[in-house]
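Provenance and format

Records in this collection were gathered into a single text stream. Each protein contributes a sequence line and a token line. The two records reproduced below are adjacent in the stream.
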Amino acid sequence: MWGRRIRSGIMAALAAGSMAQATAQALPPINQDEHIMNSLLAAAIGDEIRKNCPTISPRLFKVWSEAKALERYALDKGYTEEEIEALLDSKPERKAMRARRDAYLAANGVVAGDAGSYCALGEREIAAGSLTGSLLQAQ
């Protein structure tokens, strides 16, 4: 359920706000923008941690704030609402993001089905003050 809320919040945040006109300079495709993709990856990692660790929950206001900041960033760069929505709706992009998320989790000691490994990573992310950690709170 939280995953749907995050997605809805990100979609709403990315779609809301003023319309930005494309700059005269050609933009790379939105899925090549490192900041956007890394921010979405941080949210995907955080969502997976909170779904699998019973002692970690989302910081919903922070998630919403970061989604709004990401929306402003994308629009200010000149990406359109349609480009943003297409990225979020793209099945190949979602599949690629899941692969990046899973690779990160595995590289950081997470074992599928082992809640303790998700909790340990979540606690490390929170302690490190990473973007992922800032979206989570330990209970």
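Adjacent record:
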Amino acid sequence: MDKKLTLSLKADVIEAAKRYARSNEVSLSKLIESYLSSLTKKEAGKTEITPLVRSLSGVISIENDFDEKEEYSQYLIEKYK
């Protein structure tokens, strides 16, 4: 059963949300309902893995001592020489 809810929001936030909803062909009510639903899911912390991501899992093997920050730093140094 649907219920009504009154919210007080800044006018610019409302207008931006309406534009977003319109561009995604969804009602503002449905947009807010989906957002609140995603925030309050019982399985917080469990992220659904899409089939595409699942199919890519294990494609790359990385050494245990791999330092991604160091590698990225080296990449940027080389890129901007």
